């Protein structure tokens, strides 16, 4: 989810130093589980990863990626209202960043 606060900052997490694509920035989120809608997945993933419960969110963009071994669909949800305070619940660093501070090269290709 793209978690945006009233200061127009985005909450971003960073991949662990020992993870695939280490230290890259990423939007909190994850895979849709069997039988789950994309909307249900964003609520569950944000609760699991950053400890918030989205109250209002809307589809920002949907992207499709083809890799030699798989096809992935990324759903980008703009979250502007939530309960709780976001933090790296799974041990990942998280921070509020200005939109002007975000650079596409700091993210994995499919994020």
From TrEMBL:
It is an enzyme of class 3 (hydrolase). 8-oxo-dGTP binds at residues 15, 26-29, 111. Keywords: DNA damage, DNA repair, DNA replication, Hydrolase, Magnesium, Metal-binding, Mutator protein. SUPFAM superfamilies: Nudix (SSF55811). The lineage of its organism: Bacteria, Pseudomonadati, Pseudomonadota, Gammaproteobacteria, Enterobacterales. This is 8-oxo-dGTP diphosphatase. It comes from Escherichia coli. Pfam families: NUDIX (PF00293). Belongs to the Nudix hydrolase family. It catalyses: 8-oxo-dGTP + H2O = 8-oxo-dGMP + diphosphate + H(+); 8-oxo-GTP + H2O = 8-oxo-GMP + diphosphate + H(+). One of its GO terms (biological process) is DNA repair. Residues 1-111 form the Nudix hydrolase domain. It comes from the Bacteria. Its cofactor is Mg(2+). Mg(2+) binds at residues 29, 49. One of its GO terms (molecular function) is metal ion binding. Its EC number is 3.6.1.55.
